[in-house]
Write a structure and sequence with these properties.
heterodimer, A: mainly alpha, globular, B: alpha+beta, five-stranded mixed β-sheet, four-stranded antiparallel β-sheet, 16 helices, 16 strands
Amino acid sequence: MVDGLIHILLMLAMPPLLFGVINRTKAAFAGRTGAPFLQPYYDLFRLLRKGSVFSHTTTWVFRAGPVVTLAATLTAALLIPLGNHLPPLSFNGDMILFVYLLALGRFFTTVAALDTGSSFEGMGAAREVTFSCLVEPVVFISLLVLSRLSGSLSLSTILTHSSTALWMTSGAALILLVAGLFVVLLAENCRIPFDDPNTHLELTMIHEVMVLDHSGPAFGMILYGASLKLFLLGAFFLHVTLPIRVSSSLLDWLVFVVSMLLLAVMIGVVESTMARFRLVRVPQMLLAACILSAFAMMLVLR
Amino acid sequence: MNREPFRSIQNGGSCALDDLPLLPQDDFLQTIVALTGQGWRIASYFGSTDPAGRVTLWCVLTGSQSRIGVLRAYAGERLPSISSACPDVHLFEREIAEQWGIPVDGHPWFKPVRYQRSRNGRDAWGRGRDENILPCVGDFFRVSGDEVHEVAVGPVHAGIIEPGHFRFQCHGETVFHLEIALGYQHRGIERSLSGVSGRAAIHQMETIAGDTTIGHATAHAMICEALAGVEAPPRADALRGIALELERLANHCGDLGALAGDVGYLPTMSFCGRIRGDFLNMTAALCGSRFGRGLVRPGGVLFDCPESRATDLLARLLQVERDYAGAVGLLWDSPSVMARFENTGVVSRDAARDLGLVGPAARACGIARDVRLDHPFGIYRTCTIPLQVEADGDVQARARLRWKESQISIAIIREQLEALPEGAWMGPCGPARGGRLAVALVEGWRGEICHVAITSGSGAFSSYKIKDPSFHNWSGLAMALRNEQISDFPLCNKSFNLSYCGFDL
């Protein structure tokens, strides 16, 4: 019960902090002080207080986009275990639901973008859909590998199954998996080198360009949803990568929070030391991630 | 007796209008075509009007051995286009048509340049006097087909930049054609200068393009000095040279940082942003303005640089040079950055030559073209600078060239500061002599700036023509985007970093 409460509390409150940590890390590399850690929260509150502007050419789809996306992501967040604790919702086969909830969110973001009729947003939607075609196989294959290793079809089991012992026996497969998942983590959350969340150049954007027309609370929802997605996929990634298990439940939570923050620092380091890929290179990189996870699959099927 | 159909003068020189042959329009055009065939380049091509309302065409060409050729002709009712023979006049012809209402026959893409009214009430496109002329409203080149889509960008942009309209014809992510339409910032600078002799013109010169303040002000000062028949004192030349190189450094440094920012490489972006400020502050130390306003004046410079300030600037330069090298070194050492720069936005050498690109954009395509070497002025008559070229014509070449030029600029500034000529920094510059034409070319940081002034009998400007390097180079950007990814447009655009207001005038 307590764990369930902590789960919900963390998943609601922590995600924007990750953006704060990433931005602070990037600022440090650039020789700047950077915005406060809590800046993303201030931004969200500011957006919530603002009014919204809706173009006359848009329909209900445009307004539904941010709401459905955020709802889908929040539901997905209830399915994923955090720090070795069982999630509030868990059943056999929920991994399929998890992936499709994320896909539903993406679908509504892209449909809302197309609804505006803007050529920029159309371009962004086309890019997003093209790239996600390549990202989803990686997630599915990774889930299959993990479910094969753990012999279960439930996220709570397959994600908490990874352990030091498992790394000893199937380390090769897991390394390939981790590499593939890190690519997914960066690509799905529009981080450099796949996308630049801070750019103002609408022609280069992938994800940001789809939400150009949203404003006020709707845009706040989108930003919050984006941080939640980073939180979710980050937790997913950490489960496979860092199978640290401490006996105490509270200590487990602490380990989880600290490792999430470290992951944010790591993303910040990657962003600071790399330039973006040319857009035509992104599918190639995603394909490489597909191949990595496919090899992991072969290793565990053997 | 001058047997050539044109008059040859030196950079910063002038000639009496009476010495200038007045050709028939056909001979005039044939001479231009013949000269460009012999390797001459068109620096400026424009019209002017006399009190009788007759339009005269003027062409300024730059040639070998520091020669600048000037020729003129009375314009006929219509002007046959020579764009197919020398493509670099295509924009000049459109400009003449727009300003003087002369239709150009056979022009490949005949449309207005800045969407302004003509100066003599005629209209080359037959638009009525009461018809509203709106910027960038009109035909655009279109590619048709089910799979082709059009993307319109601007004039309002997401970043804090100047207004301009870009129309892309795309097939998926690939750009087939880019058309650039400007004119939103047309202020009528040239028109406001005709008929005035005042010293106030220098203030307008400093605002032609805010980032090229020194470049344009120097060109204007050279014009005034040539018309008055005086020369700036050596100390003034040295200070102008220092300021010009500081301007080059600040902009090259800022652009390298912005290029890094466009590919999402943060360290160089942040450091270069700060270092650019250091260069601007050095200009401020010279004259109190970070962009060099109020420094260059006809006759010399307004502010001297005493010994103590020179020592201080030298010390600062040493520090900044080290920081700059470190920040830019990060770029070349990052494979991910190089992967983005290489083979992006390639302009072939032939295209660059045909379009008459100038400055770093031309040198990055392997074309040896630098006013400081070809038509030396000021300090460049005595100090030798090595010519820098890059062969590839891509973003990488333009970036690397900027870094090479920066190093040379630092060396020039150091050399000048260490041995500032003694003497006055401001000399007399009397009123302009009447009935003359003066030409000044300056290698600004974007390339060749060309000012041409023609005085009436009283010494007032009867016509003043300004050509910012952007006028030539915007066409280069459009070519760089051919078959390029649309997502790489911002990067290509930044690698040229052209001026909108310098074009719009």
